[in-house]
């Protein structure tokens, strides 16, 4: 099964066999890493929420930037309001990966504000 979500700034595509690229890793009680196994229904729902978040709150802006932790916190709040739980698939590392890919940007270090995404504006 394949699906493609078109976003304002790019395209996010996934299929069930490639879902592991956004599966978060957890650390077991003995220090081993293990992947969570979300159910198949949760993947499209969370990606739909992510698409809604990016369409509503993020805009490309050539001479602007936004703190990475600001939009991460806003994503978590958006997800908590809509799904009543913490994001299970798109955690912080996956969020950074998706944002940098969708907006064709990178994470830069600002000496006063910390990590930022150049070229993105947050719209409350």
What is the makeup of the main sheet?
3 strands, antiparallel
Order of strands, widest sheet: 5-7-6
Strand content: 25-35%
Number of helices: 3
The low-confidence runs, each spanning 5 or more residues with pLDDT under 50, are 1-28
Task: Please tell me about this protein's structure.
With 124 residues, this protein is of the alpha+beta class. The protein has one domain. The protein contains 3 helices and 7 strands, in the order ββββαβααββ. A 3-stranded antiparallel β-sheet has the order 5-7-6. The chain has a two-stranded antiparallel ribbon with strand order 1-2. A two-stranded antiparallel ribbon has the order 3-4. A hairpin with a 2-residue loop joins strand 1 and strand 2. The longest helix is centred in the middle third of the chain and has 16 residues.
Show the helix and strand layout.
Layout: E1 2-7, E2 10-15, E3 25-27, E4 33-35, H1 42-57, E5 58-67, H2 68-83, H3 92-102, E6 108-110, E7 114-122
Antiparallel strand pairs: 1-2, 3-4, 5-7, 6-7
């Amino acid at each position: 099964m394949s699906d493609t979500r078109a976003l304002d700034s790019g395209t996010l595509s996934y299929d069930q066999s490639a879902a592991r690229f956004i599966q978060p890793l957890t650390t077991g009680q003995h220090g081993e890493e293990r992947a969570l196994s979300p159910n198949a229904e949760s993947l499209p729902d969370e990606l739909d929420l992510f698409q809604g978040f990016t369409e509503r709150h993020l805009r490309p802006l050539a001479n602007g930037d936004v703190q990475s932790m600001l939009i991460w916190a806003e994503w978590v709040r958006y997800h908590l309001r809509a799904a009543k739980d913490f994001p299970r698939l798109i955690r912080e590392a996956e969020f950074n990966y998706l944002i940098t890919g969708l907006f064709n940007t990178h994470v830069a270090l600002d000496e006063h504000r910390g990590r930022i995404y150049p070229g993105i504006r947050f719209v409350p």
